[in-house]
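for the recovery benchmark. tokens below, seq after
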């Protein structure tokens, strides 16, 4: 019995040993089996990781901005005008004369005027035709009315000599009014007049056909710019390199002639082909119709041959009629490409009454026949010329 028990125990021990041995092998195989898929997964994950995508180029920037440019004609201050503006003690106030057109001039982004008489001030004595000198307060009134830049190259620039010019320029600088066409020094002349509005850069140049026979002081050509096509073309080239739009003021033509003559057309065409985008003319003292000059590249130059007298002591025969011209300049940018387009020229005829108040012609009931005539006249070269709606300004 004892022997059987020992044998039984041996058998049981053997069976237990065998079970333990087999169990150990099973778990070892299972552990190895579970480990292998993990390694395969890591390998597969590495193989399936996508490559870094290429960097996308930045989007092309496209933008359109625009500017409204206004210009007015001659400010020709005769004694009748400055006497009316006198407030005593050698003081003057010209602001009331601009009150009825001030709302228009204030609406533009840039407004320019042709200040034909030097504002040399009372220090050297104010004077009238044929040798003009005007009070400083003319400049103050233009500033108050919304004018941003004055052109001062004309046949009366040298009327009262260098002193009047230097006095005038000092006052323009005092009231922070940009001027072009006559300068204090060679350095002043070399400084290009530029205005930036709505990301569009404008440059302004100004020239006159002559100075009424008064010679330019020797060695001082900076005192007034004369019309010399070679110089103008060179100046435009420099301006083009620094600005988007070149505006050229030309004092030319025949006085009191209502249609531009052949010389005006020739000079304007040469200046346009040299790169001027806008040409503003004056000197005839009457309105002349504006026109487009077509460029070889398909662009156009806008030319206002004469804007007449905006404020003067001259009366009758269309000499007391002037106006405001306005044009939109649009700049389209797409990436590195830029294109400037001139659009929608418009005009507002004005009349100077007996109190030397400048008034929109359309607002005067007894001037409606004249208003209609002027509209027809100014559309001779641009049939679709628009007219500024004064009703919105009242």
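predicted aa per position
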């Amino acid at each position: 019995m004892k022997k059987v028990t020992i044998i039984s125990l041996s058998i049981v021990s053997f069976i237990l040993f065998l079970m333990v041995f087999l169990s150990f092998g099973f778990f070892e195989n299972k552990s190895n089996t579970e480990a292998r898929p993990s390694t395969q997964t890591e390998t597969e994950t590495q193989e399936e990781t996508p490559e870094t995508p290429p960097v996308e180029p930045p989007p092309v920037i496209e933008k359109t901005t625009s500017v409204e440019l206004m210009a007015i004609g001659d400010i020709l201050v005769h004694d009748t005008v400055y006497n009316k503006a006198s407030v005593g003690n050698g003081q003057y106030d010209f602001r009331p004369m601009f009150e009825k057109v001030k709302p228009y001039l204030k609406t533009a982004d840039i407004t320019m005027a042709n200040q034909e008489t030097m504002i040399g001030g009372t220090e050297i004595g104010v004077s009238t035709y044929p040798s003009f000198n005007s009070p400083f307060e003319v400049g103050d009134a233009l500033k108050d009315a919304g004018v941003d830049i004055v052109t001062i190259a004309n046949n009366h620039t040298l009327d009262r000599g260098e002193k009047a010019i230097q006095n005038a320029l000092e006052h323009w600088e005092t009231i922070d009014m940009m001027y072009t066409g006559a300068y204090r020094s060679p350095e002043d002349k070399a400084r290009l007049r530029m205005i930036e509005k709505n990301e569009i850069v404008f440059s302004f140049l100004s020239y006159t056909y002559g100075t009424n026979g008064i010679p330019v002081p020797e060695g001082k050509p900076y005192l007034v710019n004369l019309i010399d096509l070679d110089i103008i073309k060179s100046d435009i080239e420099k301006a083009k390199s620094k600005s988007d739009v070149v505006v050229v003021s030309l004092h030319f033509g025949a006085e009191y002639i209502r249609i531009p003559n052949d010389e005006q057309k020739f000079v304007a065409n040469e200046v346009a082909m040299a790169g001027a985008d806008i040409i503003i003319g004056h000197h005839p003292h009457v309105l002349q119709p504006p026109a487009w000059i077509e460029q070889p590249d398909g662009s156009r130059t806008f030319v206002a041959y004469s804007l007449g007298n905006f404020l003067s002591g001259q009366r009758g025969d269309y000499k007391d009629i002037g106006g405001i011209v306005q044009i939109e300049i649009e700049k389209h940018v797409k990436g590195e490409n830029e294109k400037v387009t001139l659009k929608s020229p418009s005009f507002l005829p004005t009349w100077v009454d007996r109190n030397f108040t400048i008034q929109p012609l359309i607002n005067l009931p007894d001037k409606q026949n004249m208003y209609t005539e002027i509209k027809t006249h100014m559309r001779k070269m641009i049939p679709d010329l628009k007219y500024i709606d004064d009703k919105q300004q009242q």
